[in-house]
Amino acid sequence: MTEFVHKPVMLEETLEGLNLRPGLIYIDATAGGAGHSREIAARIHPDGRLIAIDADPVAIAAATKNLEPYSKTVTIVRGNYTDLSRILQDLNIEKITGGILFDLGASYYQLTSEERGFSFSKESFLDMRFDPNNPITAYDIVNTWSESDLVRIFSEYGEERYSKRIAKSILEKRKDNRISTTTELANIVKLAVPAFKSKIHPATRVFQAIRIAVNNELQNFENTMKEVIPLLAIDARIAVISFHSLEDRLVKNLFKYYSSNCRCLPHQLICECESGQIEILTKKPITATTEEIRGNPPSRSAKLRIAKKISGVE
To answer: Across residues 11-40, what is the average pLDDT?
Structure first.
């Protein structure tokens, strides 16, 4: 099995954005191998508290090992951040007093592991699940979803211009045999689209779209934000790292929504909204430095947005 390796992106910028302070509670909602968590724990040790959450059992094993020096400060939870309210309730935590971090998308380990089926660079079963308990795999989507549903996710989640051609090719191929591996799917996509020179493989957007659909990534984050905002204490920070335009656009719009003073529907004559609940601290997203990109190429696409809780029922 591939060792869990994932270099944290924009580490110092993230730690600064979280405004780490002693004695407060911080959440790493997507802990992975604990790249960010380890540094958070080190800086709030020994009187702060960090809750590190991840759904991937391999990530949990790596995080447990990496966070062992701070075991008195850290609580590690295997679970999905969509269950954040329940997780905090089980830990008798009413408010996130310090801040919360979301590092969205797949880790380097998940993208490169032969066992996980996220990448077409090596032949593997079409899986793509962050959480192995998830009942839906990429195999299920590719082999059972309708043409219209495939077109929809390729268009919406992959922004793929040849969505209809690719979906039609998939349905034609699966009439004869099930499509089982990453390389099979990648070749189908490659043959379905016009040949042109590009730095990225023609199946990249399709694989992204399927991964997002398998893990319900965008909807899960949007739903979780509705729960997180009320759980933040005044002055607590929320930091979100995204890796593609769909994620960043969603984060930007959610931050704008929760910072707005008015969220009334157009037909409402009287505004009944509360004041904005958060203050956006990053007018534009923070991006990785040239030096970081040189040493950690995946950071090239990363964008960090930060906000602070300013009002709400305490």
So the answer is: 96
